[in-house]
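Researcher: I'm preparing a figure for a lab meeting and need a structural model of a single chain. I don't have an experimental structure, so a prediction will have to do for now. The sequence is pasted below. Please return the structure as tokens so I can convert it later.
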Amino acid sequence: MEMAIDTPSPSPSPAPSAAAGRQTRAAESVRLEHQLVRVPLEALRSTVRANHRLAEKEIAAVINSASAVPGDSSAAAVDHLTSLVSRLHGLKRKALPPITPLSRRIMEEGAKAEEVQVQRCRARLDRLATASAGDDGEWDDMRLKRILVDYMLRMSYYDTATNLAEISGIQDLVDIDVFLDAKRVIDSLQNKEIAPALAWCAENKSRLKKSKSKLEFLLRLQEFVELVKAKNFVQAISYARKYLAPWGATHMKELQRVTATLVFRSSTNCAPYKVLFEQNQWDSLVDQFKQEFYKLYGMTLEPLLNIYLQAGLTALKTPLCVEGNCPKEDPLSLEGFRKLAEPLPLTKQHHSKLVCYITKELMDTENPPRVLPNGYVYSEKALQEMSNKNEGKVTCPRTGEVYKFEDCVKAFIS
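Model: Understood. Here is the structure written out token by token.
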């Protein structure tokens, strides 16, 4: 006699907790938005380096003063050394006056900047720490506002970005002050002034050199071209010897092309040299500075808003959209989204899915597609409901043509 034995089915594995899901989501967000933590950290490192350089300068001045101790009396020597020690204590506490009032003000501003940046780093770490315990809706809303502020700052809508950050209470989660520092350089380049950009390169010389940046070289070339344009040829030659010659070992071809403007001048019609005197050279410098600025602070080269939108558009871009035949419901029917999707590959779909134009429901074996005589396809469910309401007749919502339900041919999905 055979006996049926009931084998207990394996219990389903427990679904991951909501907290674990939020933790994973936060980790994935940080992979893309690493600038959330890195930007204030880079700003803090920059401020610390500046304060360190100023401290070294003050200490060197104190040492030089110590070598000039008056030798006429021991009391004068003691007083001189005591004042130097007081200055060193003041430098340490950033409270007593250093050698000059200007140095004192700079040190105080540097100390305040350090405190603000440390507070900002702490606020962002605390924000990430709440990822596994916070509310999903609040987290997503806050992230969207940060992404919008980032986009506005990159597009130079500084006042709007500041207002949104203040209204949302996310000043410590966005980098307005960093972008405002960059704005000073961008404005100067748009006004055809090189000096602020060169000063920025000098402040970050070691880091730009490490990344093999050409920004300083391009700025020097533009300054040379402006001298040629102003017909200051002797000054241009002296400038080239002083500032451009050191770049000859690595950028000789570009150097030769630019120095040839001494012969071709700004009135030339020779295309390779005429372009060097055009306005778009300044626009290129602005774009180059922005790229170096983003890399220096560990930001994404594209706005985060564009990256997120492109991630979604990759699932929607099909050959039909490229041909310009998108339905109105498709985001790619809009010019702005099509421009964003231009560099993206077409979506790879192993199994196509048909969605009814009328009901927005999936068409499958349970709800098969039917083809009208004019060639348009709708789900059987939608056409059947329409037929029941109109005495066996169906109307094509796209063309307005009316047919009998029996004239609709069933299509089979292979």
